[in-house]
Amino acid sequence: MAAGAIVKKPAVVETPEGDLIAVRHKMFLSHSYDHRVVDGALGGKFVKRVADYLESWDLNREI
Fold first, then answer.
1. pLDDT digits (tens, 9 = 90+) for 14-49
2. How many domains does the chain have?
3. Which side of the chain, N or C, has fewer Cβ within a 10 Å radius?
4. Residue 31: inside a domain, yes or no?
5. Residue 60 lies inside a defined structural domain of this protein
6. Is residue 15 part of a domain?
7. 29 belongs to a structural domain
8. DSSP tag of 11
9. Which segments of 1-63 does DSSP mark as H helices, in order?
10. N-terminal to C-terminal alpha carbon distance within the chain
11. CA–CA separation, 20 vs 10, rounded Å?
């Protein structure tokens, strides 16, 4: 797994008044694995779970 730098990027934000474009902090996540051992769907689920965890980061949460 590799993580890119956190950079500011434009993103669509949904609000009650409608969609707007705002600046958000973004980071790329990538991974590689041996397809003979790990199925692509399982690899995708892993990256999704890591992304969800990072997006809902809480310093007070116990691991």
1. 999 999 999 999 998 888 888 888 888 888 898 899
2. 1
3. C
4. yes
5. no
6. yes
7. yes
8. E
9. 40-55
10. 19
11. 10
